[in-house]
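2024-03-11 09:14:02 INFO worker-7 job=invfold-0412 stage=load source=structure_tokens
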């Protein structure tokens, strides 16, 4: 959060305005314009500051961080500037949360409503007289655009391990978006 320390270059009222504009950008509205702050920060500093403030708001809301934790992350900033950032966070926490949820939901409109599974043991097939292979039958109820559809699949152990690895990787991505 070293880049946030450069907020001290602005008067507190301008810091407050900048933070509100950063949240506006995070929520899909017009973000702050570089031209308004070109005398205060170089282009590189500006981009780093925007990234840092955006990450701060995202993480604070996504992790539901208490005020003390946010202030600890703003230790390099003067107390009046830190309070300005915190006041924006308090005032717009729900709006940021909604924007983060919309962003996550926009990845796919399909949501898992329910699932059911069964473990079967295939004892033989038409080609092999003795098979003894465990098979998982997985049924997913997926809601997409208000319509509920069922997706059923049957997997052997290797396919199940691949599915589990894919779901774990997807979960990591979702957690990073928070």
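2024-03-11 09:14:09 INFO worker-7 stage=emit residues=178
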């Amino acid at each position: 959060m070293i880049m946030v320390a450069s907020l001290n270059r602005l008067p507190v009222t301008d810091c407050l305005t900048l933070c509100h504009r950063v949240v506006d950008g995070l929520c899909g509205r017009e973000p702050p314009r570089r031209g308004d702050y070109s005398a205060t920060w170089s282009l590189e500093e500006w981009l780093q500051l925007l990234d840092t403030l955006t990450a701060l708001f995202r993480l604070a809301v996504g992790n539901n961080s208490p005020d003390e934790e946010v202030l600890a992350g703003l230790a390099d900033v003067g107390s009046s500037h830190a309070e300005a950032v915190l006041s924006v966070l308090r005032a717009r926490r729900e709006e940021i949360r909604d924007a983060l949820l919309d962003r996550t939901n926009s990845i796919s409109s399909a949501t898992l409503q329910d699932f059911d599974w069964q473990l079967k043991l295939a004892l033989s097939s038409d080609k092999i007289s003795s098979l003894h292979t465990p098979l998982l039958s997985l049924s997913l109820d997926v809601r997409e655009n208000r319509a509920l559809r069922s997706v059923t699949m049957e997997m052997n152990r290797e396919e199940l391990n691949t599915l589990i690895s894919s779901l774990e990787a997807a979960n990591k991505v979702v957690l990073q978006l928070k």
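2024-03-11 09:14:09 INFO worker-7 stage=report msg="The mean pLDDT is 89."
2024-03-11 09:14:10 INFO worker-7 job finished
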